Amino acid sequence: MGFNRYMLVAFLESVKYTGHLVPISFLRIFLGYYYFQQAFAHFKSDFLVRPQIAEQISEFLPLSHAPEWYRFFITSQFIPHWQGLAFLITGFEFALALSYIFGYVVRPMALLAVFFCANMLFISGSAQEDLFKTFLAIHFVLAWVGAGRCLGMDYYFFKRRRGIWW
User: Fold this and answer.
1) CA 94 → CA 30, 42, 101, 131, 144, distances in Å?
2) pLDDT in tens, 32-79
């Protein structure tokens, strides 16, 4: 029971000592909710059983600004293994949503999200290009400031185990 009390105290202290991050924390929580909605929509739809992602990649790849070696990698790995990619995207969105909502390991997850958005920028259509560029910048900022330390579980670990991940 002592662990829960310390977690609650650390949560309340996070607002006191990192209160300047409250607006960024609300952005983090909102983004987590957005990713949860996206993952749930992918899970409930036929995204995991129909090759929608492969069709989308095949349509947009000739217009993409991706380097030639990356286009070859996408063509040889992503398109034939579209179902694994669909599960990977949906699973990562769920994991990112939980991390952002609870504020746990936000910095490493935000760095992975930067990589995720860069990949989605190369393989998705131009209609979503601005969205992924914006998300790329937001994830980078969340990683930079360590947004999980305010209104999240990361402050508890930051306080006890200093390091770059918190």
Assistant:
1) 14, 10, 11, 19, 22
2) 999 999 999 999 998 888 888 888 888 888 888 888 998 899 889 888
* Nearest CA-CA partner of 10 in 163, 165, 148: 148
pLDDT for the residue numbered 160: 63
CB 28 within 8 A of CB 41: no
148-161 pLDDT, tens digit each:
777 777 777 766 66
In angstroms, the Cα distances linking 50 to 74, 78, 85, 87, 114 are 18, 14, 12, 12, 26
Tokens of residue 105, six digits = 């390991």
pTM of the model as a whole: 0.80
Contact partners, residue 83, CB within 8 Å, separation at least 6 = 48, 49, 51
Name the residue ranges covered by the structural domains of the chain: 2-160
Helix ranges, the chain (H): 2-17, 22-44, 52-60, 68-73, 82-102, 106-123, 129-145, 154-160
Contact present, 158 and 149 (Cβ < 8 Å): yes
Q: What is the pLDDT of residue 58?
A: 87
